[in-house]
Design a protein that fits this description.
By secondary structure, this protein is mostly helical. About 55% of the residues lie in helices and about 0% in strands. The protein has a two-stranded antiparallel sheet.
Length: about 475
């Protein structure tokens, strides 16, 4: 059992990933024919996987998608926004606190309906969410509050995935992978500063992140780390060979899914007004488990978060994010298409359903927890909200797919724009300034204390 998925299913997902990455259709067809005849022979399946990874690219594939930082930077757009890095102490503290509150509120908003967002089969996920709410009352849509625990339509769809974050019960930010990774990013930066390495992160996973707490790409990378690590007997600390491409790709067909994107926030917090630095820090983290667009999603979001400390203009924020990833990538190309869809409808919040329909049609082939489509919903939420906290997190969650991830990412951005003082208490007060992360030293902890630590990190790195 490699990770949480059996080998045969991992190979099935690998064929999907290989097609999306642009591998040669004839080569894949030949390997698929072999795959059908193998059965459950583990040795032959593993050998087939190696050949899949080595399959040639299509000659007509229109994208260029490196995973190394030097080439990524060489392929960035030439025109990138210039931003201020001058923040007085009160301003930085308020924006940092707002970003943490926004991430927690957006995550909590989407957490109960994550299973509906990624497991609904009968209708587009956003329509399932609409059905859940309007079965209670037509006034519940557009989303105006945390999700109720029950709906007359709940038997028609996957069950609510978290009761503590529902409207009737919410009293703190409960543990969630979107929050644990933000905490781990802060732990990493407090320990190593901006000089941390991918190996430092891998060691932190071993020390602070239980294997039961990871999924998809992180599950496979964690398993590969165990196989790759060399343990010194005294003290029993791991040493990692510099073999990150193998760790990120071996039996890991999820390497372009959303996992690295949700780990990006603390790197944006650490580099306010400095999207290039935020993206580099995110790259060092993301390469542990992801490649190509899986890495770019993390860099894109970290850069947007860094920019949101320096400007309230959502278009500038989005351009700052796109400015740190290859202009030749699927992610950049598709975000441009999302922007065009929103612009065609005047970025009018009242037309969000029409925009959702067009965005869903654009991303139909992708998994519901892929990086690219979920990043697209984040862009929709920012453009339709204009930076308004309430509109942004509700749009991100109403869009479906990975609801807690998108609510949290957008929450970080609009929380930094708004600042804690102006963040709507309707969303933030019920968290009672409390985070339960399941990470030692952060369970429980005041959200305001996380933001104070974030300010200290940003000031230290800036100096």
């Amino acid at each position: 059992m490699p990770g949480w998925e059996d080998l045969e299913n991992l190979i099935k997902h690998e064929f999907i990933e290989s097609k999306e990455e642009g591998k040669c259709p004839d080569a894949l067809a030949s390997l698929e024919h072999e795959f059908a005849a193998i059965g459950n022979d583990s040795a032959r399946l593993t050998a087939l996987h190696k050949r899949l990874l080595a399959a040639p690219m299509r000659k007509d594939f229109p994208f260029r998608e490196p995973s190394d930082l030097e080439t990524i930077r060489a392929l960035r757009p030439s025109d990138r926004p210039g931003l201020s890095t001058a923040f007085d102490d009160d301003e930085l503290a308020d924006k940092m606190h707002g970003a943490w509150l926004g991430r927690c509120a957006g995550c909590a908003l989407g957490k109960p309906v994550e299973t509906i967002g990624i497991m609904s089969d009968k209708a587009p996920a956003w329509r399932a969410l609409k059905r859940y709410l309007t079965a209670i009352s037509p006034d519940e849509w557009p989303l105006r509050d945390y999700f109720p625990r029950h709906s007359p339509a709940e038997s028609e769809m996957p069950a609510i995935s978290s009761e503590p974050s529902t409207r009737e019960h919410i009293a703190f930010m409960e543990t969630d992978d979107d929050i644990r990774y933000t905490v781990l990013g802060q732990v990493l930066l407090r320990q190593y500063g901006a000089a941390f390495t991918t190996a430092d992160l891998a060691g932190l996973w071993f020390a602070r992140l239980p294997y039961r707490s990871v999924c998809t790409a992180e599950t496979q990378a964690y398993r590969n780390l165990v196989l790759e690590a060399v343990f010194h007997p005294v003290p029993p600390a791991p040493y990692f060979r510099d073999n990150w491409d193998w760790v990120a790709t071996h039996l890991n067909p999820y390497r372009e899914w959303i996992g690295a994107q949700i780990r990006a926030d603390s790197y944006g917090y650490a580099a306010p007004g400095r999207p290039e630095l935020a993206a580099e820090l995110a790259w060092r983290d993301a390469r542990l488990s992801h490649v190509k667009n899986g890495i770019y999603g993390s860099m894109f979001c970290a850069a947007m978060i860094a920019a949101s400390f320096a400007t309230n203009d959502v278009r500038t924020i989005i351009e700052a994010g796109l400015g740190e990833i290859p202009a030749t990538s699927r992610l950049c190309h598709d975000m441009r298409n999302v922007i065009a869809i929103c612009d065609r409808h005047g970025c009018d919040f009242a037309k969000f359903e029409t925009i959702f329909e067009e965005v869903y049609a654009l991303f139909e082939p992708y998994s519901k927890i892929h990086t690219i489509n979920n990043a697209g919903l984040c862009v929709v939420a920012l453009l339709l909200s204009g930076g308004d906290f309430h509109k942004a997190i509700t749009t991100a969650v109403m869009g479906g797919w990975d609801t807690d991830c998108n609510g949290a990412t957008v929450g970080s951005i609009v929380g930094a724009i708004t600042g804690a003082r102006l963040a709507p208490s309707h969303w933030t007060a019920r968290l009672n300034d409390t985070l339960n992360s399941e990470i030692i030293g952060y369970h429980p902890i005041a959200i305001s204390e996380c933001s104070r630590r974030g300010v200290a990190i940003a000031r230290k790195i800036a100096s």
